[in-house]
Write a structure and sequence with these properties.
Elements (H helix, E strand, L loop, with lengths): L2 E2 L10 H5 L18 E4 L5 E8 L5 E10 L2 E9 L12 E4 L5 E8 L5 E7 L6 E7 L12 E4 L5 E8 L5 E7 L7 E7 L5 E2 L5 E4 L5 E8 L5 E7 L3 H4 L2 E7 L12 E4 L5 E8 L4 E8 L6 E8 L2 E2 L6 E2 L8 E8 L5 E7 L6 E7 L12 E2 L7 E8 L5 E7 L8 E7 L12 E2 L7 E8 L5 E9 L2 E9 L11 E7 L7 E7 L11 E10 L1 H8 L4 E3 L13 E7 L2 E12 L5 E7 L12 E9 L5 E3 L3 E3 L14 E6 L2 E6 L8 E9 L11 E5 L3 E4 L9 E8 L8 E3 L4 E2 L11 E2 L11 E7 L3 E8 L5 E10 L2 E7 L12 E9 L2 E9 L2
Parallel strand pairs: 39-40, 46-53
Antiparallel strand pairs: 1-49, 2-35, 3-4, 4-5, 5-6, 7-8, 8-9, 9-10, 11-12, 12-13, 13-14, 13-15, 16-17, 17-18, 18-19, 20-21, 21-22, 22-23, 22-24, 25-26, 26-27, 27-28, 29-30, 30-31, 31-32, 33-34, 34-35, 36-37, 37-42, 38-41, 38-43, 40-41, 43-44, 43-45, 46-47, 47-50, 48-49, 48-51, 51-52, 54-55, ...
C-alpha cells in the first residue's frame, strides 16, 4: 500500500498535452467591419478631409479635421485593426484641439502601431505647420497640442510628408514668407521629435511665381523627392513641372530651385510621383500642350529622365479630357495609371499598365475599369500584392446626385476580377465622397470617406478583401467554453456564421474547425505522419493522418490542426462540441486556441475567424466510495480499513479523514492520508479512541466525491486477548494534547514496573505507576499535572516504561 500525505493534490500532465498549448496571446475580437460602413466619427458638426495610413501591424490609422468643438476644425485620429475594431477612444483621440482652425492633416506610419501627423495650423492668426506623433495606444508622444515645425511669417500651408526611416518624417509645404508668391520648403523630424535642417525649413524652391501642388516620396535613404507645379515661366508656358531631391542631411542634389520635368507649352499641373524601386521613380501630371487636358509621364533612373523630353502621353484619344493621374507599381515593377476621361461623354474610369519604356501593356488607351455605367470620377489605386491592382472611385450611376463608392480589382493583364460593374463598398444610401484608400497588405484595401448625414459630414471606413467581399465575411467565434457536468476533454464551441452563409447569399459550403499546436507538438506529430499545408486546398478530416495548416497572424506563426467540419445549413450561428488534449487544473491553467474557417465552392476563397481560447474542465466528481469496512488488527495493533474500488477512468485516489465524533467536517485538521489503493491501516486506532472515519474519492482534475462514513459501531474482528504476546508501550492519544492524554501499555507477564514522565532536560515531572502489575493491557492517564500538583508548562515531554528487562521511551507534546 502506498500512502501520500499531500493536500491539496498536485498532478502531472503529460508532455504531449503540454505541447498543445498555443503560446500566442489571445487575439479574439468581434469583427467590426459593417456592411454599411464602420463609423470612424459621427460627432456633431463636420468630420472631413480624412487621410488614411498603415499602422504597420495589419491595420490602419485615419486622421481627419473635426468640428465637434463649436464647429472649429481640430485634428482627431482613430486606429483600426484588420478586423475593423476601433483600438483608440470611441470617436477618435484628440491630436490637437488648441484655438484656431486646423486643416489638411496628413499621416505616415510612425512606430509600434502609431503614426506621425502633420497639419496646417491657424492658432497664431496665420497658418503654420505643426506636427504630432501617436504611439500604438493613441498616446501623444510629442508636445501637447503638437509642436511647431515652421512658424515663419505669413502662411505655411498644405503640408505633405513621407517617413524618414527613424520613426519620424520629412515634411514639405507651400510657404508665403517671402511675399513674392508661394514657395516650397521642407524640414525633417526624427522619431524622437528632434528637428533637422535650417530653422523654419530648407528652401526647396523660391523662384518667381507660385510653386505649389506638392507631391512627395521617400528616397529610401532618409531623404525625399519632391515634385510640384511651377509658374516661374508664366509668360511662355503657363505652368511647368519641377522636382527636387533633398538628402537626409538637408543637402539638395538637384538644380537649385528645382530640376525641370516638363516645360512644354501650355500648362502642366497637379503632378504626382511614385517610387518604382530603389533607383527608379515616375512622375505624372495634367498636361495642356495639345489645348486639351491630357496626362503625361516621365520615368527617372536616379536623376536621369528615361523617356523623351517633356514626357510621354499615356492616352492618345483626341478631344478626351483626362483627370486624376493616380499611379501605383505592380509586383513586376511596372507602372499602373488610372484616370477618368470623357471619351464617351460622361466620365468613366480607365487604367493602363506600362512597361519600362512606357509602352502600353494592356489595351491601347486603357481598359475600362467599370462596365457601361456613367458618372465615375476621382479614382484611387493601390497594388493588390498579386500582380494586379485595386481601384476605387466615386460613382454617380444612380442619377440622384448622391455619389457612392465602388471598387474593382484588375489582374496583371488588366482583366476585371470582381463584378463587371464594380463592388459597392457601402450598403447605405447616403452621399459618400472624398474617399482615401490604402492597401490592407493582404490583397485587399482599407478606405475612409465622408458620409453626408442630417448632422453634417461624418466619417466612415470599410475593408474590401482580395475576393471583392466588403466588411467582414469571416465567421466569428461567439463562445468557447467548458461543457458543464462532464469529465472534461471537450469544450462547446459556438460561432456566428459568415454573412455569406444565410439566405440570400448562400455562398458558404461548409466550415472547418481548427485547434492550435506549438511547433514542438507539430515536430512530434510529424514522426507519425501528418499532412502539412499553408492553405486550404485539399483539406479534409482524416483520423489516420492529421492535417496541419500554417498561418501568420499579427506577426506570429500559428500551427492549426484540423479537428472537425460542419456543413453549411444557411444558419445565423452554429455550435459543436470539440475535443481538447488536456483539462485545466492546479497543475496547468493553460488555454486551448480554436479557429473557424468558412469555405466556398472556390477552394481559394476561405474566410477565417480570429482565434479564441477556452479551457476544458473535468467538473464531474467520482462516485462516493462504497462497501467500507474496518477490522481491528493485533500484530501490529491498529485498524485495517478497506472499501470497494471506484471505476472512473480518471480516478486519482482517495482521501481519508478521522476525528473522535461523527459530525466533524473534513479538513486539514482531520486529514490523515491520501492513498492510491483501496485500503488503509491506522496504527493510532484503539478501542477506547471512538474514532469516526470519512473517505472520499478524487479524480486527476481534483474533483472530490461525497464522503463515505465509518464509525465505531461498525468495527469487526475479535476482542483483544487478555494477555499480550509481548510487553509494549503505545503512543499516547491524543498527541499533542490538552489537558490530558492516555498512555496505553501491556505486560506479557507479571512485572515490577515504573511509568514516569520527564522534561527535555531529563528531570522527573511525574511518576504515574510504581509497583507490580499482573500480565494484561493497561491504560494510564496523565492529567498534565506535575508531582507537586501544578499545571505542567506546554512543550515536549517524554514518558518511559521500565518493566523487568523491557525499557522504552516515547515523546509527547502538551499544548496550552
Amino acid at each position: 500500500m502506498k500512502a501520500r500525505r499531500l493536500l491539496p493534490v498536485i498532478f502531472l500532465i503529460c508532455t504531449y498535452c503540454a505541447l498543445t498549448l498555443a503560446l500566442t496571446p489571445t487575439l479574439q475580437t468581434l469583427a467590426a467591419w459593417d456592411l454599411g460602413g464602420t463609423p470612424v466619427s459621427t460627432e456633431s458638426y463636420d468630420q472631413e478631409t480624412a487621410c488614411i495610413t498603415e499602422d504597420g501591424e495589419g491595420g490602419s490609422i485615419v486622421v481627419w479635421e473635426d468640428g465637434r468643438i463649436s464647429g472649429h476644425q481640430m485634428i482627431y485620429a482613430q486606429r483600426f485593426d484588420s478586423r475593423g475594431n476601433a483600438l483608440w477612444t470611441e470617436g477618435g483621440v484628440s491630436v490637437c484641439s488648441t484655438a484656431g482652425y486646423k486643416y489638411y492633416p496628413q499621416a505616415v506610419p510612425g512606430s509600434d502601431g502609431g503614426a506621425v501627423i502633420v497639419w496646417q495650423d491657424g492658432r497664431s492668426g496665420n497658418y503654420d505647420i505643426y506636427m504630432q506623433k501617436l504611439d500604438g495606444d493613441g498616446v501623444l508622444q510629442w508636445s501637447s497640442g503638437g509642436f511647431a515645425l515652421c512658424t515663419a511669417p505669413d502662411d505655411q500651408r498644405v503640408p505633405m510628408l513621407v517617413p524618414d526611416g527613424t520613426g519620424g518624417a520629412i515634411v514639405a509645404w507651400e510657404d508665403e514668407r517671402n511675399g513674392t508668391g508661394i514657395d516650397i520648403y521642407a524640414r525633417r523630424v526624427d522619431g524622437a521629435g528632434t528637428l533637422y535642417w535650417t530653422v523654419w525649413g530648407e528652401a526647396i524652391s523660391t523662384e518667381s511665381g507660385d510653386q505649389a501642388k506638392i507631391n512627395i516620396i521617400t528616397d529610401m535613404a532618409g531623404g525625399a523627392i519632391i515634385v510640384w507645379s511651377d509658374e516661374r515661366d508664366m509668360g511662355t508656358s503657363l505652368r511647368d513641372t519641377y522636382y527636387a531631391h533633398i538628402e537626409s542631411d538637408g543637402n539638395i542634389t538637384t538644380i537649385s530651385g528645382g530640376t525641370p520635368v516638363c516645360t512644354a507649352d501650355g500648362y502642366q499641373n497637379w503632378p504626382k510621383i511614385v517610387r518604382m524601386d530603389d533607383f527608379h521613380f515616375a512622375i505624372s501630371w495634367y498636361d495642356g500642350r495639345n489645348l486639351t487636358k491630357d496626362i503625361y509621364v516621365q520615368y527617372y533612373y536616379l536623376s536621369s529622365p528615361q523617356l523623351s523630353e517633356n514626357g510621354a502621353e499615356i492616352c492618345s484619344i483626341d478631344g478626351a479630357l483626362l483627370f486624376s493621374n493616380e499611379m501605383t507599381i505592380d509586383d513586376q515593377g511596372r507602372l499602373v495609371v488610372c484616370w477618368y476621361d470623357s471619351r464617351s461623354g460622361p466620365y468613366r474610369i480607365y487604367a493602363q499598365c506600362y512597361d519600362f519604356q512606357l509602352g502600353p501593356v494592356w489595351t491601347d488607351d486603357g481598359v475600362a475599369v467599370c462596365g457601361d455605367w456613367d458618372g465615375q470620377e476621382v479614382p484611387k489605386i493601390v497594388p493588390d500584392g498579386a500582380g494586379g491592382s485595386i481601384i476605387s472611385w466615386v460613382d454617380y450611376r444612380l442619377g440622384d446626385y448622391q455619389p457612392r463608392i465602388y471598387s474593382q480589382r484588375l489582374d496583371a493583364d488588366g482583366n476585371r476580377l470582381w463584378d463587371t460593374d464594380g463592388i459597392k463598398v457601402c450598403s447605405e444610401r447616403n452621399s459618400h465622397d472624398r474617399m482615401e484608400m490604402i492597401s490592407d497588405g493582404n490583397g485587399g484595401a482599407f478606405m475612409a470617406w465622408e458620409d453626408l448625414s442630417l448632422d453634417g459630414e461624418d466619417l466612415y471606413a470599410q475593408r474590401i478583401d482580395r475576393n471583392g467581399y466588403i466588411a467582414s465575411p469571416e465567421p466569428s467565434i461567439n463562445a468557447a467554453r467548458d461543457v458543464p457536468g462532464d469529465e472534461g476533454g471537450q469544450i462547446d464551441l459556438s460561432w456566428y456564421s459568415s454573412y455569406l452563409d444565410p439566405v440570400p447569399n448562400q455562398e458558404i459550403t461548409h466550415y472547418t474547425i481548427w485547434k492550435s499546436l506549438t511547433a514542438e507538438a507539430v515536430a512530434m506529430m510529424k514522426a507519425g505522419g501528418v499532412r502539412m499545408s499553408d492553405g486550404f486546398t485539399d483539406i479534409f478530416v482524416d483520423p489516420d493522418k492529421p492535417v496541419i495548416r500554417i498561418e501568420t497572424l499579427a506577426g506570429a506563426t500559428w500551427f492549426w490542426e484540423l479537428i472537425d467540419s460542419q456543413t453549411a445549413q444557411y444558419y445565423e450561428s452554429y455550435s459543436r462540441v470539440v475535443a481538447t488534449n488536456f483539462d485545466s487544473s492546479d497543475a496547468t491553467s493553460a488555454w486551448h486556441y480554436f479557429q473557424i474557417a468558412a469555405h466556398t465552392a472556390d477552394p481559394l476563397v476561405v474566410f477565417t475567424s480570429d482565434p479564441d481560447s477556452a479551457r476544458s474542465v473535468d467538473n464531474l466528481a467520482p462516485a462516493t466510495p462504497m462497501g467500507v469496512i474496518g477490522e481491528q488488527e493485533f500484530s501490529p495493533e491498529g485498524l485495517q480499513i478497506s472499501w470497494d474500488a471506484n471505476t472512473e477512468p480518471d480516478l486519482g485516489g482517495y482521501l481519508i479523514f478521522r476525528a473522535p465524533y461523527a459530525t466533524f467536517v473534513p479538513g486539514s485538521a482531520s486529514f490523515i492520508a491520501t492513498v492510491d489503493e483501496i485500503e488503509y491501516f491506522d496504527s493510532n486506532w484503539d478501542w477506547e479512541s471512538g474514532y469516526w472515519y470519512k473517505i472520499a474519492a478524487f479524480d486527476v482534475h481534483e474533483n472530490v466525491s461525497g464522503y463515505a462514513i465509518f464509525g465505531p459501531g461498525e468495527l469487526t474482528g475479535e476482542d483483544p486477548p487478555d494477555v499480550p504476546s509481548s510487553t509494549y508501550i503505545a503512543q499516547n492519544y491524543p498527541n499533542p494534547f490538552n489537558p490530558a492524554t492516555t498512555i496505553r501499555f501491556g505486560l506479557r507477564e507479571a512485572s515490577q514496573l515504573t511509568l514516569r514522565i520527564y522534561d527535555p532536560a531529563g528531570r522527573l515531572v511525574r511518576e504515574l505507576v510504581n509497583g507490580t502489575l499482573p500480565a494484561g493491557h493497561y491504560n494510564e492517564q496523565w492529567d498534565g499535572l506535575t508531582a507537586g500538583g501544578t499545571r505542567a508548562a506546554s512543550g515536549v515531554y517524554f514518558y518511559k516504561l521500565t518493566a523487568g528487562m523491557f525499557v522504552e521511551t516515547r515523546k509527547m507534546v502538551l499544548l496550552k
